[in-house]
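Per reviewer request, we include the raw input and output of the structure prediction for the construct analysed in the revised manuscript.
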Amino acid sequence: MIIELIVVGIFIGTMSGFFGIGGGMILIPILLVLGFDIKVAIGISIIQMVFSSVYGSYLNYKKGSLIIGEGLFVGFGGFIGGFIGGYVTYYISDTVLQGLFFALLLFALFRLLISPNHEDDSLTKTLDKSTLFMIGLMIGVFSITLGIGGSIILTPLLVGLLHYPLKKAVSAGLFFVVFSSISGLASRLSSGTIDFENGLIVGVTSLVGVTIGIYLKEHISTKNHKSMLLLLYFFSLILLVKEYI
């Protein structure tokens, strides 16, 4: 099982860096296929997200694709929401969690399908700070409850509603995961519902993948980047449907 988790960690890290996701969107279905319980899988996912998002955001900042600014207000909202979400998981059944996760993937897929490609920063819209905070709060509660970082909700919103260029939206989405995952980890630890041993294996090995993913992101066109992101959503949906069947 250790070898499988190492391979999964590198793969998920690459996906995280390339797509700006925490990794839970695809990691949880894989862990379910490997035989993990949904709540254990969520805990492992949260640990991995802390590693990949912190390191990935650092690399994105160095490369100039992450502009912190407004992201702090969304992030602080996500931090509070993630802390709440870590407790909510304890009171929700496995069936409901899987259903919510499936619905979330469908929503993200739809938003990306209908959103145009934006290349010009001048078209980017903005919102007031309190609205940004509330958006982060709601995404944080919902995402950590499901064991995902929240970028699969935030990135489509940034691209489809605020006209962010895709690659900057991806970097902003991964930065949001820093806040939501750390608070989610703290709340899950306080309730004692987390698998640290397997989580650290996946988390540490994901750092290798994050480096690879961010390098690849900087060397691909926006059109191809979006197409591959949509394929990622489809792949995760297939894994989840297979688990239901």
